[in-house]
UniProtKB/TrEMBL annotation:
It holds the Pfam family Cupin_8. SUPFAM superfamilies: Clavaminate synthase-like (SSF51197). Residues 125-278 form the JmjC domain. The lineage of its organism: Eukaryota, Viridiplantae, Streptophyta, Embryophyta, Tracheophyta. SMART domains: JmjC. It comes from Prunus persica (Peach). InterPro entries: Cupin_8, JmjC_dom, RmlC-like_jellyroll. This is JmjC domain-containing protein. Belongs to the JARID1 histone demethylase family.
Length: 278
């Protein structure tokens, strides 16, 4: 174990430095700087003051603006009882990979469900459709943002394959996962907290195969039902919960020592105007 810990430390210091913080730039880099210092090194960074010129940073803080612009738009809303979509949850005594109940509805109704997070109905709504949804479901807002990030597009040599939009509240969480793309994540309102691990730490995530399950939600009863998919389907997913509940903490620490006893993940928080490259 000591040899493995030494290797982790050396790999991190070589590729990411000896800090547990993500590099932070106070203004957008040149394409050359971005390519040389971050893309080629597969190194995340936060760029502040990157989108302050977007009209979205002022107009999207008002629900009335959003509901007016999207008054006739139907969007895909993801519903779960706890805010954890695409995550491991217990079912019949074991864990399964759960997907949210997805429902199309008018945007004003969807936004009301997202922001009404004090309801006792045990329903957490999250707009997280992906699949280039910003340019399809939310196209009425497209003029409020740049169509791409020029310095990043020049460095990467291409325009974005997809532009997505997420709208959630403090109950919306995303479990550990990996993306197969270069990502630029921009926060317009609120905050977004990230835990990051380098690819060399993949063994610490205890990726295992879990049966896929799907939530269904009844608006009549206000209840969720979770059922395994038919035919059976299995999904490789991270077994670690980085924020275990008090009653589950000892079990998590015992079952996944490589994560909890190893180097700490990189933590960062994005504010309006910030972009995270990863």
């Amino acid at each position: 174990m000591e040899e493995i810990e030494t290797l982790w430390k050396e790999v991190r210091e070589l590729s990411l430095g000896d800090s547990d913080r993500v590099d932070h730039l106070e203004c957008p880099p040149t394409p050359l700087q971005f390519l040389r210092d971050f893309v080629c090194q597969n190194k995340p960074c936060i760029i502040s003051n990157a989108t302050l010129h977007w009209p979205a940073l002022s107009s999207w803080t008002h629900d009335s603006y959003l509901t007016g612009a999207l008054s006739s738009a139907d969007v895909s809303l993801h519903l779960t009882p706890h805010g954890q979509a695409d995550a491991l949850v217990p079912l019949d005594g074991s864990l399964c990979f759960s997907s949210a109940h997805v429902q199309r509805m008018p945007f004003p109704e969807a936004l009301n469900l997202i922001t009404n997070n004090e309801s006792p109905s045990k329903l957490v709504a999250y707009a997280q459709q992906q699949n280039n949804c910003f340019l399809s479901e939310y196209s009425a807002l497209a003029a409020d943002c740049d169509p791409h990030i020029p310095w990043a597009s020049e460095a990467l040599g291409c325009l974005p394959d997809a532009v997505n939009m997420w709208i959630g509240n403090h109950l919306s969480t995303t479990s550990f996962h990996k993306d197969h793309y270069e990502n630029l994540y921009a926060v317009v309102t609120g905050q977004k907290h990230f835990l990051l691990l380098p690819p060399t730490d993949v063994h610490r995530m205890y990726i295992r195969m879990y049966p896929a399950a799907q939530y269904s939600y009844s608006h009549d009863t206000g209840e969720f039902k979770l059922e395994l998919e038919k035919p059976d389907r299995y999904v490789p997913w991270c077994s670690v919960d980085p924020y275990p509940s008090p009653e589950d903490r000892d079990k998590q620490l015992s079952n996944f020592p490589l994560y909890f006893d190893g180097p700490k993940p990189f933590r960062c928080t994005l504010n309006p105007g910030d972009i995270l490259y990863l």
